[in-house]
Amino acid sequence: MIDKGYLLGERYRIIDTLGEGGMANVYLAEDIILQRKVAVKILRLDLQNEPQTQARFQREALATSELSHPNIVSVLDVGTDHGLPYMVMEYVDGPDLKEYIRKNSPLDLREVIRIMDQILSAVALAHKHNVIHRDLKPQNILMDKRGNIKIADFGIAVALNQSSITQTNSVMGSVHYMSPEQTRGGLVTKQSDIYSLGIILYELITGKVPFNGDTPVSIALKHAQEPIPSIRKKDKSVPQALENVVLKATAKDPRDRYASAQAMKADLDSSLDPERSDEPVFVPNHGNSNDKTIVLPGFKPQKAESAEEPKKEEKAEAEPIKEKKSFWQNVKDHKWWWIFSVIAAGLIIFIMIFALSGNNKKPQDVNIPDVTNITEKAAENKLEAAGLQVGKIIRRQSDDVKKGYVIASKPTAGNSVNRGKSVNLIVSSGSSMVKVPNVVGHDYDKAAEKLENQGFDVIREDQYSNKIPPNDIISQSIAAGVEVKPTQTTITLVVSKGKSPRQRNNSVTLKDLRNYSLKGAQDYAKEHGLTLQINQEYSDDVEKGLVISMDPGPGTKVDRGSTITIKVSRGPKKEKETTITKTFTVNYVGDNVNKNEKPDNDKDNSSSSSESSESKGDHVQIYIKDDDHSLSNIYRDYT
């Protein structure tokens, strides 16, 4: 284990452990140069001297670094630290697909197809580079917070042209998602990955894997011998066309599976179309080619004990040889021979009826032939010979298929359809740079079909919008006019879900918010989808913290999302306290002064009066008028 805080390769500071594996440990680290979080896979210390493990680690780095795709975890750097190999990858902050299925099952079927399309798009690119993953499972598929898929862990991936890879490591991976040929240690091909993709699709739809068992051996045997459990028997809402995608991808014989991940994606994308609602159950052409005994790696068949008995002494006289009788002679010798005769006659009649009924099979049921990688004319002839018609011809860019040759058919090969039905052909228009069309504001279904017909991979992201109608495109990930190779380009389309539930009722009649508290006004605005602009001002009449006024006023109808301006009281404005000193003189009058004579008053603030008091002095009263005093009350009384 690497300690937290360790600076790997003088650049990546270890923050935490993300996972531990049989070959390597994965850590969360910070790139101190670019100041971003990354995932670092480091070969385990106890395996650094094993050449086979080092080769496998290097193979993963090489295989992943060659694959640049938005749905494949990117390799950012590779290196060694004190002789220990490491690989730096983008950090995906989110759950793996296994955890996502567990928390969100059952998934909406359109969500299933959205997720599966991203996986298939990534696998198609890997296969295009002749890289077979060999360990496709939900645990190796990550999902970021925006719902984007990232395939990781190409640790046991192999390149088809690597002659050094032997059969001894071809069965590595999770047995729940392993193809029958992998469990036998047989040759692993692109169709082996497609089998695993079929199992993943099954789990996305149902929430669980098709086969379970007490031991890996028992699970492997089920994959090789038992049919995939029917999805529609448990859930009738799943269309037969969608179940057929699972059945074809997981056919026991690789020849019955999809020819490519791209072909599986094309079939999956149309599986919810109404025109495929009456599609019959998929039936493989080659049946179960795996009926022979399976020998799993690590298990040796036990030798049967010899049944030979110890030699006995030869008899002096040879026993007479009994004459061999035919089966019918033995039957006739039996006392119940007539019962056997009746049973045999009944069996013969039954077989004849069965054979005749087989010959009366409805002539309109035909299987679509495989017309991929042949010229358009040859494909038309092949379909017509099978009793089918050629429907629409869709031109699509392709780097893999020559111009004028068929990429795929819709419906795909192997499906059983009515005689005379039209089959659409997707024909290669060659490989070249094309300008990305502007599809913003267009209907998603039409725009996606247009882009896919040009060869683009399309990913859909849904988002609420007040302005854009539902199912119309808000934005596209690659700007219009940019020249790209369609077969190597994935375009993400952000599609409007319409207004959010709170905004669907667009009109609000404003309530009188005056004398509401500020929090009460904010809660009202939030509940009705309004924006508040808050101004504060002093008020002698409205208590501090309460709404003084609003604009627009109460009773006004406004759209949700509108801005309402309110004035909130700060309370009365506090004046500064000022001390004013007034000086005045009160003359002593004594007995000789008229008692009614008053001294001069301070003109606004005070008055005084004096009365003679025989021996006690003058009597003085003071009056003040201000915010706290009135002239009707005596402020001070002196003698």
From TrEMBL:
The chain crosses the membrane at residues 336-356. InterPro entries: Kinase-like_dom_sf (IPR011009), PASTA_dom (IPR005543), Prot_kinase_dom (IPR000719), Protein_kinase_ATP_BS (IPR017441), Ser/Thr_kinase_AS (IPR008271). Its EC number is 2.7.11.1. One of its GO terms (molecular function) is protein serine kinase activity. It catalyses: L-threonyl-[protein] + ATP = O-phospho-L-threonyl-[protein] + ADP + H(+); L-seryl-[protein] + ATP = O-phospho-L-seryl-[protein] + ADP + H(+). Residues 302-321, 594-605, 613-626 have a biased composition (Basic and acidic residues). ATP binds at residue 41. Keywords: ATP-binding, Kinase, Membrane, Nucleotide-binding, Serine/threonine-protein kinase, Transferase, Transmembrane, Transmembrane helix. Residues 257-321, 590-626 are annotated as: Disordered. It is an enzyme of class 2 (transferase). Residues 362-429, 430-497, 504-570 form the PASTA domain. Residues 12-282 form the Protein kinase domain. It holds the Pfam family PASTA. This is non-specific serine/threonine protein kinase.
